[in-house]
Specification:
single chain; 553 residues; alpha/beta; Rossmann fold; four-stranded parallel sheet; 17 helices; globular
Length: 553
């Protein structure tokens, strides 16, 4: 437990007390390698991340290794810690982060990057990797951000690219075996492991016009490209049997069981499909066993069957036959967090039982024409059919996600989206969410440019005018400047890292939240550090080397 006597002065003190059901506190002195898993967001978001939970359990299943946790403190707690000179400590043993051998970072969202600097700074760890002392922890990052790592390269000693369950123990073993060697040699040993990228050993190259030319290994022994690591036997991949049960409500407050990893669909905009592919499937029998095990150790009343598109799971009838008797007996609800319109009726008929959530959630993305171009081959007629099914089964609310500013999108596409929404709202209440399209690394659209703010504002004005008097609609538009910053942090090179430090020093925190987001701080930081962020938003010509070209999917 974090022994802070002032937790009554901060919001949600339950974030910092630890000691949850199924959490693991091990003997510090007997552990050969000590890793603190750092999630640069609040407890409620971090504890909802399945990848972190998997690694936590894998490490603590080993007798000689110890894994603990830390999350980004709220701004109010950060202020108190700084004023009192108290270091940020782990949940399990209240140990300052600087005492660990490794800080294992999950980079799940670009808009949480500034929070990592808060964690390192409060934990007594030097921000810049090249300036860290021999006795400071190794900072190793994984997650989505490791697939385009250059903006965070100044702060991370190493990145792991791929599925961490496959290599986490090899990483800790290497750290254990090289414990008495100099820091540089420890990193050299890590760089020999599959999927491990050590920025220290690579030099960015630019031409006289400051055009990025790629990374050059400083020695011939370092590979020019880093290939991601994937699990081939997903049927027997690790699972969180000892599911940690929080004391306060978190974002996804239920058991999560992966039924598939990857996705069968080929949507051109989707980075997750690329990062988590290829599509691998667990058998109904294995899923049944995992659900029973997790239920017995937690008492949760809901299990979420996880994948990028759960309705595409090919063995739903068999899974229903196995799960239904147990679910009825234990009053256990099974839910699907990610459905496509064309798979909803199948999942609703075959598995969904018990009390329904407040709303169904789907992502039509755009007009029918644009969906076809995006390889999301859903027709408006199919959408209408699923609305009819949902209405007949008693649903009264549906949440729909759309994107604005897609490549090739025109005014007619926006009009068709508005018309479709207006017609649907006549039969069911709709909650709409609109986001600006970001051309993410490693997708087929990675070289596309991002739409200008004035283009997005024009589309938003049109939609707001169409929706103004419709009481069956509620809607929100993601801040364009948040999307812009996300794009820069996703598509940038190593120079962006210095702007991250500068923005953080100016006060940038929790940039994914409207109440904390201040784009003016980022503008000032990038201007002061000479970062022309517009260059990362432009269309990139074929043949141009991209800042993530050294990462091979």
């Amino acid at each position: 437990m974090m022994e802070y006597p002032f937790l009554n002065l901060v919001e949600a003190p339950g974030r910092y007390i630890g000691k949850e059901i199924n959490s693991c506190t091990k003997d510090w002195a007997s552990a050969k390698v000590k890793i603190c898993f750092a999630f640069p967001e609040t407890y409620e978001l971090g504890m909802s991340n399945l990848g972190w939970r998997l690694l936590y359990e894998i490490v603590n299943s080993q007798r000689t290794y110890l894994g603990e946790r830390v999350f980004a403190p709220s701004p109010s707690l950060e202020q108190i810690l700084r004023e009192k000179g108290i270091p940020l400590s782990s949940l399990e043993s209240n140990t300052p982060l600087s005492k660990f051998d490794v800080i294992g970072v999950t980079l799940a969202s670009e808009l949480s990057y500034s929070n990592l600097l808060t964690i390192l700074s409060l934990g007594g760890i030097t921000l810049q990797s090249e300036e860290r002392g021999e006795d400071e922890p190794l900072v190793i990052a994984g997650g989505n951000g490791a697939f385009a790592p250059e903006p965070m390269a100044p702060f991370c000693d190493a990145f792991f690219v791929g599925e961490g369950e496959e290599v986490i123990l090899a990483i800790l073993k290497t750290i254990q075996e090289t414990a008495k060697e100099p820091r540089r040699e420890r990193l050299r040993a890590l760089s020999r492991l599959p999927g491990v990228y050590v920025p220290l050993f690579y030099q960015p190259q630019y031409n006289e016009d400051n055009v990025y030319l790629g990374l050059v290994p400083k020695e011939k022994s370092f590979p020019e490209q880093i290939k991601r690591v994937i699990i081939t036997d997903f049927e027997n991949a690790p699972f969180c049997e000892n599911w940690v049960v929080p004391y306060l409500q978190i974002v996804h407050d239920r058991i999560g069981v992966e039924i598939m990893r990857g996705c069968m669909n080929r949507c051109r905009f989707c980075q997750a499909r690329v990062i988590y592919g290829p599509c691998r499937i667990r058998s109904p029998e294995k899923i049944y066993q995992l659900v029973i095990t997790a239920f017995k150790k937690t008492g949760y009343e809901e299990v979420s069957l996880l994948s990028l598109s759960s309705g595409d799971y090919p063995y739903l009838p068999q899974l229903k036959e196995l799960l239904s008797p147990f679910c009825r007996k234990k009053n256990l609800k099974i839910s699907f967090p990610s459905l496509r319109f064309d798979t909803f009726s199948l999942t609703e008929t075959n598995l969904e039982k018990g009390k329904k959530p407040v709303a169904l959630t789907f992502a039509p993305e755009s007009s029918e024409r644009m969906r076809t171009w995006l390889n999301k081959n859903l027709k408006d007629a199919e959408l209408w059919e699923q609305i009819r099914v949902a209405r007949a089964k008693g649903w009264r609310h549906i949440k729909l996600y759309f994107m604005l500013g897609l490549p090739g999108e025109n005014d007619q596409d926006i009009r068709e989206v508005a018309n479709l929404i207006m017609e649907m709202s006549k039969v069911i209440n709709l909650n709409l969410s609109f986001n600006t399209f970001i051309p993410k690394p490693h997708t087929p659209l990675e070289r596309c440019g991002m739409a200008k703010e004035e283009e997005i504002d024009q589309k938003i004005r049109f939609l707001k005018e169409r929706f103004r008097r419709n009481r069956s609609l509620s809607y929100s538009f993601h801040l364009y400047k948040q999307s812009l910053l996300e794009a820069v942090l996703a598509r940038g090179d190593r120079t962006v890292g210095q702007a991250i430090v500068k923005a953080w020093k100016k006060g940038a925190r929790f940039d994914g939240r409207k109440e904390f987001f201040r784009f003016d701080l980022w503008q000032e930081a990038m201007a002061e550090m000479g970062v022309n962020y517009e260059m990362f938003l432009k269309e990139q010509p074929e043949g141009a080397v991209l800042p993530w070209s050294h990462i091979v999917i």
